[in-house]
Structure formats: structure tokens, C-alpha cells
Design brief:
With 378 residues, the protein is mainly alpha-helical. 72% of the residues lie in helices and 0% in strands.
Length: 378
């Protein structure tokens, strides 16, 4: 889920998958641990957008965050690596959730998961742009309409949600995985072959000079997704040399991509800290994969996981809006403003989850399945 560039279930088994027991024990505990990790990644990104970067947020704080939060900003500047953390988790979760599903089930699930909260976030940010355009640029009708598709990035259109560039990365991952693995049925062998082939393609992309190939293969993000995929294989089938070899190779490539791509342009970051953060992201998901988080059974983690996606969507621009109103408009000190803004975005995320995602996600999924059945019968 992310640091934006600065404009800004069960289903009938598919043919082929091998069923194997999970080695980690309780599915519930596994999911709770992942939910906690997802919220940690989202809060990392939030901290970066509020206190770790300049740009529009400086106007809301009436000063650069490095001056407003001298100590905090030195940590917050690394918060954008929460995006890469998300990608490792996403590789794990997508492999898990696609097991035993048909291609139609997979896409219906993704559409119902992504779009309802996304559309509401678009409406909210567009409303904020009209109310206080000094924080978010005023949105034109044509920009709003094309953003409804979630395809504005490849269209070259203006992005209303700064963070939505990561959704385009996720969508490409879903499509690749669906066509090359889910279509024929998810098995250990197919996931492992896919991971190895994607790794080779990502490495070769650096010397190809082909922009279309780069857009499809995504060499800068591939190692994170691939590492997550392999960690799920370890979780489902147990440790073996091939799966751990894929994880190790992915980590080695991921730390290189992160250091070159996210440290190089920002020399005030420490490259050793970058490597440490990437390592901790892989290690955290590995701990889940190995079943060492069965003790993490707190019920609040379920809520934390539910809030992550809507929080991620709304926190950036709407957070800047709230900061400007509280800090510059009402004169609230910086630290209370930061705390109130983060809590306010979490509350808004809960409202979106409770009144949008929970009622309309399942309805959209059911409607898509009904339409699919009607098309087959017709």
C-alpha cells in the first residue's frame, strides 16, 4: 500500500492445485499477525507523508517537517519503505488467497476488495480539493471520471489520490499472477517456476532498455512480491532449499533495488538503515510463515487489518487538509495536531470499512458472479 511521488474466503477448487496442510497451525492467528504487519506498514507510510517529506505538507505545517519535527523527521524519512513492506505481505497474501480458486473467483475477489473503498476515497479527496484547493489541487470532471477506473497511471492522467500509484503496481502483479499461475490452478510447482522466471526477467529488464517490458515485469518491485510468494510456500509446505533459495535471492535483489532507487536520490538517508528495513520486512513475514506468531491472537488485530486499506487511501491528502485546518487555522500545536490527524484518519477508515466495504464489497462480488453466470448461460 505508500510513499507517493510528489504531485500526488473460500471457493470451489480449481483444477490442479495440490492440497497441503498449513505448517503454522491456526489460520486465524496467521491472519491476525499479517493484519498487524499491514497496519505497521501503513503507519510507516503515513509518518513519511506527515513528517518525513517536504512538498504540500510543508504548506500545511507552515514550515518544512524537518524544522517542525527535528527528531521525528530523521525517522519518518524512512517511512516510505512501508510500501515495499506492503509488497512482501501482498505476495504472501495473494498466493494464500488464490489457492484453490478459479480465475473468475480470483478477479471477483480483487475487484470487490479494491474498488468500493477506492471510489469513496476519490469522492472525499475531490470534495476536499473543492473546499480547500490550496492543499489539494482542484479536480476537473474528466480527471475524476478517469480515476474511477484505477487506470489513470498508464493513461498518463492526473492522479487524484497520491498513493494510487502503488495500486497500479498491485494490479499488474495480480494480472501477471492470475494469467500465469491462477489460470491453470495454483500449485507449489507453478508458483516456484513463476517466481524463478519472474526473477530472471526482472534482472534482464535492467539491460533491456524496453519501457513496455519494464512496465510489465516491474524489476524495482518484483523481488518484494516474489519473496512474499516463496514465504507462503514455506508456510504451506514447510521449509525446503528451493523456497528458501527464492526468498534469499529476492532479499538480495530487493535490498539492491531499495538502496539504489530510494537511497540514491535521497543521500540524507543512510544506506545501512535502508538495508536493515528491507531485511526486517522480509524477516517479519518469515516469522509469520514459520508459524511463530500463533500467540498473536488479539482480536483488535482483526480491526487493524480491516482499517489498513481505507486508511492508506485517505490518509495522505485528507491528512494534509486536517493538518492545515488544525495547525494553521486553529493554532493547535504540532504534536497534538499530528496525533489528532492520525487518529482522525483511522476513525474515517473505520467508517469506510463499516459502512462501505462490509455492506457493498460482498454485494459487488455476488453481482459480478451473477453476471458471469448469466453470460455463460446466454
Amino acid at each position: 500500500m505508500s510513499a507517493s511521488p510528489s504531485t500526488l474466503t473460500s471457493a470451489p477448487p480449481a483444477p490442479g492445485p495440490v492440497t497441503a496442510p498449513s505448517v503454522s497451525g491456526g489460520s486465524r492467528s496467521r491472519l491476525l499477525a499479517l493484519d498487524g504487519l499491514r497496519l505497521v506498514a501503513a503507519l510507516m507510510v503515513c509518518l513519511y507523508h506527515y513528517a518525513g517529506r517536504g512538498g504540500p505538507v510543508s504548506g500545511s505545517w507552515h514550515g518544512d517537517p524537518t524544522h517542525v519535527f527535528p527528531a521525528l523527521s530523521r525517522v519518518a524519512v524512512y517511512g516510505n519503505f512501508g510500501v515495499q513492506f506492503f509488497f512482501v505481505i501482498s505476495g504472501f497474501v495473494i498466493c494464500m488467497s488464490s489457492w484453490g480458486r478459479t480465475l473468475g473467483d480470483f478477479f471477483r475477489s480483487r475487484i470487490a476488495r479494491l474498488y468500493p473503498a477506492y471510489w469513496v476515497a476519490l469522492v472525499l479527496v475531490t470534495g476536499a480539493s473543492l473546499a480547500l484547493p490550496v492543499v489539494v489541487h482542484a479536480v476537473r470532471l474528466d480527471e475524476f471520471l478517469v480515476n474511477l477506473t484505477m487506470l489513470q497511471q498508464p493513461m498518463g492522467a492526473t492522479r487524484i489520490l497520491g498513493v494510487c500509484w502503488t495500486l497500479w503496481v498491485e494490479v499488474r502483479f495480480y494480472v501477471l499472477f492470475a494469467i500465469l499461475v491462477v489460470l491453470r490452478g495454483v500449485t507449489y510447482r507453478r508458483v516456484a517456476l513463476y517466481a524463478c522466471a519472474w526473477t530472471v526477467a526482472a534482472v534482464l529488464c535492467h539491460s533491456s532498455g524496453n519501457e513496455l517490458l519494464n512496465q510489465v515485469v516491474m524489476p524495482e518491485y518484483a523481488p518484494f512480491f516474489i519473496g512474499g510468494l516463496a514465504l507462503y510456500l514455506i508456510h504451506r509446505f514447510g521449509s525446503d532449499l528451493l523456497a528458501w533459495g527464492i526468498v534469499t535471492m529476492s532479499w538480495l535483489l530487493a535490498q539492491s533495488e531499495a538502496t539504489r532507487g530510494l537511497w540514491g536520490p535521497h543521500p540524507h538517508r543512510n544506506p545501512y538503515v535502508v538495508i536493515l528495513i528491507v531485511t526486517l520486512a522480509f524477516a517479519a513475514v518469515a516469522v509469520v510463515a514459520l508459524g511463530w506468531t500463533r500467540w498473536a491472537s488479539w482480536r483488535w488485530l482483526t480491526t487493524a487489518g480491516a482499517l489498513t486499506y481505507p486508511f492508506y487511501l485517505v490518509h495522505e491528502h485528507l491528512g494534509w487538509f486536517v493538518i492545515r485546518v488544525l495547525h494553521r487555522g486553529l493554532g493547535l500545536p504540532a504534536w497534538p495536531t499530528l496525533a489528532v490527524t492520525v487518529l482522525g484518519m483511522l476513525v474515517l477508515a473505520w467508517l469506510i470499512h463499516r459502512f462501505v466495504e462490509k455492506p457493498f464489497g460482498p454485494r459487488l462480488k455476488k453481482a459480478l458472479k451473477r453476471e458471469s453466470l448469466a453470460a455463460r448461460l446466454g
